[in-house]
Amino acid sequence: TTKHIYIIKMTNNLSLKYIYTPLSSLTDIGEYNFYGVIIDSSFPILDSSSPDNIHFECMLKLIDQNVNLLTHPSNYQDHIINLIIKTSDKANIPFIHNIGDIIRVHRGYYSPKKRRNVYLQILKGNQMKSSWCVFSGASDILSREMTPYLCSHQNFTFEQQDRHIIENMRMWIRNYFDKEKSLLYEREYPLLERGLFGSDSDALVQVVH
């Protein structure tokens, strides 16, 4: 396996470099920095529709303390954030370890159409228009580790406020996923009925080995 070494740049708490916006406050089109809890994630998809602009992309669905199935049960899909990451290098696409892990986004472009979409464009070379880091959440809920297990680049800032946000999110995750109906699956079938599946369905299974 490849061992990743990240370099953290600590900053003085008196002069915060980044201001983070709650997901519920993403309302106007523009760039935002924010944290979210991952509840769904796709694998990288290769888009080669333009020979001069081959890129990979994936989509993650995000919630937080104010935007989730328990606070918006009736119109939940209208409130969650759909994070779409596009990059020319598949290494800049996050392979999420666990539903309930935490992602930090810098300079994500919020552009709602039919859904509340945020776009991240990771450019070639050292040009990083947007960036992301993924921290353990539900995958290691008691962890006190503050180094991300995935990151779009090696150098990233980490302020005292980041520590507080991650600690508070981990505490919230522990409580949230213990509650009934904290996750929603729209089309759920027993595995034996997999022949009835359409192109996008959910299966409830038990891991036995």
Word description of this protein:
The structure is a single chain. With 209 residues, the protein is mostly beta strands. 8% of the residues lie in helices and 32% in strands. The protein is built from one helix and twelve strands; from the N terminus they run ββββββββββαββ. The chain has one helix at 160-176, and strands at residues 7-10, 30-41, 45-47, 55-63, 81-87, 102-110, 117-122, 131-135, 150-151, 155-158, 188-190, 202-204. It has a five-stranded mixed beta barrel. Strands 1-10 form a two-stranded parallel ribbon. It has a two-stranded parallel sheet with strand order 11-12. β6 and β7 (117-122) form a beta hairpin. It is globular, with a radius of gyration of 18 Å.
What characteristics describe this protein?
209 residues, mainly beta, 5-stranded mixed β-barrel, two-stranded parallel ribbon, 12 strands
Brief synopsis:
It contains 1 helix and 12 strands. By secondary structure, it is mainly beta.
List the helices and strands and how they pair.
Elements: E1 7-10, E2 30-41, E3 45-47, E4 55-63, E5 81-87, E6 102-110, E7 117-122, E8 131-135, E9 150-151, E10 155-158, H1 160-176, E11 188-190, E12 202-204
Parallel strand pairs: 1-10, 5-7, 11-12
Antiparallel strand pairs: 2-4, 2-6, 3-4, 4-5, 6-7, 6-8, 8-9
The fraction of residues in strands falls at 25-35%
Number of helices: 1
Question: Which strands sit side by side, in order, in the main sheet?
Answer: 2-4-5-7-6
What gyration radius follows from the Cα positions, in whole Å?
Answer: 18 Å
Alpha carbon gap, first and last residue: 23 Å
DSSP helix fraction: under 10%
Main beta-sheet strand count, sense and barrel state: 5 strands, mixed, barrel
Q: What value does the average pLDDT take?
A: 80
